[in-house]
Amino acid sequence: MKSQILEYLNGFRQLYSNNTKQGKNLRAYYRWILKTGKLFTEKEDAKKFHKTFKKRFKGCYYNAQFMAMDNRKLKYYEGWGISKGIGFPLEHGFNVANEKVIDISWLDGIEYFGIEIPVDFARKEMLRTSTAHTILYLWWLETRKEKK
User: Fold this and answer.
1) pTM as predicted
2) What average pLDDT does this structure show over 93-98?
């Protein structure tokens, strides 16, 4: 099966081919995403979580970060997803358990690609900013610090 998300991300990696500092940085970021990320096509039924968690409409990062903080069996992922209703990749936050996506924000999601971000990192960023937002780029910067 050909992944629409991987084609999309490879396009971005190729787009940043100039040798400016910004181009090199973004090219390295997308290389890291493609090397580190995981593709998911199987989903777990998220309906059971609707009863225990009050989700926010259009709040995928909030929903997924709080779900992972509330349930230690869930991992927090950020990346991209495709839903039946939209049909092209969008940046998205979601949860994973037993190698299956649990997504209470999109019940019609069909393909996901993302990178696990430790829940403690998400919690610290949420406390620092008083909001839930995309933190994938910040996590990449953190992983680069660790290598130095």
Assistant:
1) 0.90
2) 96
